[in-house]
Design brief:
Blueprint lengths: L26 E6 L5 E5 L12 E5 L1 E3 L3 E6 L5 E11 L4 E7 L9 E3 L6 E8 L4 E8 L3 H10 L15 H11 L7 H12 L7 E4 L11 H9 L3 E7 L22 E5 L1 H12 L4 E4 L1 H9 L10 E5 L14 E5 L6 H10 L1 H14 L9 E5 L1
Parallel strand pairs: 1-17, 3-12, 3-14, 4-11, 14-16
Antiparallel strand pairs: 1-2, 5-6, 5-8, 6-7, 7-10, 8-9, 9-10, 12-13, 13-15, 16-17
Helix pairs in contact: 7-8
Length: 374
């Protein structure tokens, strides 16, 4: 299949700019792979599709406040800094992106607060926007990272606009029942800090939300447990590669960014047990599905793993581990959309996307959800 096969028209107004008031208020489209049947539900209804012995696998990666705002030394130019990952804890080296990049050269210094308690010195260029920073501070190593995170902001994707347009702000106020508030944006950001995470968030290191895992509320997980289904986790540190465009028509030539994944021994045993009992194994999100497929051997069994994957899944592809999948509604021609199509079948999923647009489903990290099931 080719890139152009995954094109569809997505009206901008269907790109979600804020989360639903409750996680399980999200709309849920259920797609049955074998029959092609499509049902329209709410996320809270998801527990009805799982029973005794079924296994749902979530991503427990925790998003850190990776977006920072700084001033350039001397000129005081505004520079946005996006933290990617820590390279050396002792030396305080970090891999970052800067914007606008043309203004930032090796040797430049950036200030992040009025008291200059945290200063960054540029020590290397990595890509067109990429830089290596050495942070200069009087904080000791145990204090520094928490202080750095304290001045950071939730790393929302570029399509979620802050501040909001007047129309979106009006919708948000209605959804969250906010009347007069002197600092509306502070309220919004505080909500982002909670909702741009899943309830499973534990392992710090992601710079984008495991958005499908974030659709699940504590009450929904409890309902799954009451039905006899188990909820387990792996770790996939979601990177900005999730938002990178696929820009080659021949999909076999596309290269994805590597992501760090961790598959614990306990999950291996849980998956083996579910397979032995012929119970459902459900991947919650494309990053979970990719992690599972990366560690699958020739016999179809997974193994424990702590390392990196750049697996790119697109049709046709034979899945070996999960037989059920939750997915968000992804953007046209995105790698996540392609994996969803590979799992659910081209005709089924492209038809589902067409119906989703017609029915006003919301797209993106704060959007609605799809369950693909036999």
């Amino acid at each position: 299949m080719k890139l152009s096969d995954f094109k569809f028209k997505l009206p901008p107004e269907l790109i979600a700019q804020y989360p639903r008031y409750n996680r399980d208020d999200t709309r849920l489209m259920v797609v049955h792979r074998k029959s092609g049947l499509i049902e329209h539900k709410q996320m809270r209804d998801a527990a009805d599709y799982f029973g005794e012995g079924d296994l749902l696998i979530f991503n427990d990666a925790k998003v850190f406040p990776a977006r920072l705002y700084s001033k350039k030394e001397k000129t005081l130019a505004d520079i946005e800094v996006f933290l990617l990952r820590e390279l050396n804890h002792e030396l305080r080296y970090w891999d970052v992106l800067v914007d606008p990049a043309r203004k930032i050269r090796i040797g430049n210094k950036l200030f992040f607060d009025d008291d200059s308690n945290i200063v960054a010195e540029v020590i290397d260029n990595t890509t067109s926007r990429g830089r290596t920073f050495r942070f200069l501070t009087d904080y000791n190593n145990d204090e520094f990272v928490p202080k750095l995170y304290a001045i950071g902001h939730p790393p929302l994707p570029h399509y979620i606009e802050r501040p909001m347009s007047p129309e979106v702000e009006e919708e948000y106020r209605k959804e969250y029942m906010i009347q007069d508030d002197e600092d509306f944006l502070a309220v919004v950001e505080e909500e982002d800090r909670e909702r741009y995470q899943s309830i499973f968030a534990d392992k710090v290191g992601a710079v984008a939300s495991p958005a499908t895992s974030a659709q699940f509320s504590k009450l929904l997980v409890k309902r799954l447990e009451v039905n006899g289904a188990a909820s387990k986790t792996l770790t996939s540190y979601v990177s900005l590669g999730n938002f990178r465009d696929v820009d080659v028509e021949d999909l076999s030539k596309h290269k994805t960014d590597s992501e760090h994944i961790v598959i614990p021994d306990t999950l291996v045993a849980d998956v083996d047990k579910a397979h032995e009992r012929n119970c459902r194994v459900c991947a919650v999100g494309t990053e979970v599905m990719r992690a599972l497929e990366h560690v699958t051997g020739s016999t179809g069994q997974i193994s424990a793993f702590d390392g990196w994957t750049n697996l790119f899944i697109f049709p046709p592809y034979n899945f070996s581990v999960a037989d059920t999948m939750f997915a968000n509604f992804y953007f046209p021609q995105s790698s996540q959309q392609m994996m969803t199509v590979a799992f659910g079948g081209y005709d089924n999923i492209m038809r589902a996307y067409k119906i989703a647009v017609q029915e006003g489903y919301r797209f993106g990290d704060y959007g609605d959800c799809m369950l693909i099931i036999d």
